[in-house]
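Illustration 12: Glu/Leu/Phe/Val dehydrogenase dimerization domain-containing protein.
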Amino acid sequence: MAIFSHPSFDQHEQVMFVHDQASGLKAIIAVHDTTLGPAVGGCRMWPYANEEEALNDVLRLSRGMTYKNALAGLEFGGGKSVIIGDPKSDKSEALFRAFGRAVHSLGGRYYSAEDVGITTGDIMIAHQETPYMAGLEGKSGDPSPYTALGTFLGIKAAIKHQRGSDSLEGVKVAVQGLGHVGYYLCEHLHKAGAKLVVCDLNPEQLDRAATELQAEIVDLDAIYHQDVDVYAPCALGATINDHTIPQLKATIVAGCANNQLAEPRHGEALRDLGILYAPDYVINAGGIINVSFERDYDANAAEAKVRNIYDTLLQIFRQADESGKTTAVVADEMARAIITAAHR
Ligand code: NAD
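Figure caption equivalent — predicted structure in token form:
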């Protein structure tokens, strides 16, 4: 398995492979760039089909955290970790303690937090072995409401860019995934007068959305071709791909999921079809912004900073229009400029 020449390596500072025989822990911790501060990024637990898949995921996510933290104006670098295993059956106290010790061995170069498959409770166990954990209970807590707020404001910015007004009254939004973030997002959208079309694997969440938010429910595969204004991916990555792009009727793609574009060329495909894409790591930065206030937690200050996502996205949309580049490329360039300036 190639590491230094891996297509997603992108000059990572450090990649650590962790094995703890007693607990069965197999993890990879990736520290992409610490120019702006310690690398901060969550830990994902997933039953990866093989080690290559886990490595690719952690490298892509870690690099994304560098850019996300830079554009959110945080003094954090980018990093991420993955635990190879099934979150439903492979969790134990020993496993998360071993993970905590591995994070501790990096001496504060990397702070972990919750991500897909990981709960605040798991992070609290790891925290018994190291102070280098973020998103702790009793501090900044669950990041999802802030991620949802940022995503909601990002959708408003996209509508503003296309229509000149950011009113969501009557705007139709297809939300894929009613999990921690997706449901809060739907609540914001409903309150703002948007019409919701939703899908999820969980029938209880669907019933709740239909009853509380008058959401229309559609099958999982039908979400892409709904006659809506906005497609909001809030479940899986890579849902913008060769198969789904031709189905889209939405003129905006704006949701909270990480790594929405299967490949960079799919950003170009969206642009060529006149579909406005809100780069994932910009629109979904609300949670990490909230975590950045953890030390002396202040919810109002955190919310005020999350609200900046609206202006950052408007700036990216304008620059993309002016340059003819994709919004994803413009966002990457802006993030790299911040890091390069800090280097100097
Ligand atoms: P979650 O696990 O709580 O929710 C995901 C939801 O998607 C679940 O309800 C699940 O049933 C549903 N789902 C799974 N497969 C689906 C499919 N094929 N079609 C439709 N629905 C499906 O996760 P979350 O915390 O809400 O995060 C959602 C996305 O946002 C993830 O990609 C995550 O990486 C990203 N994200 C989350 C945060 C955060 O603060 N939680 C921050 C940044 C990015």
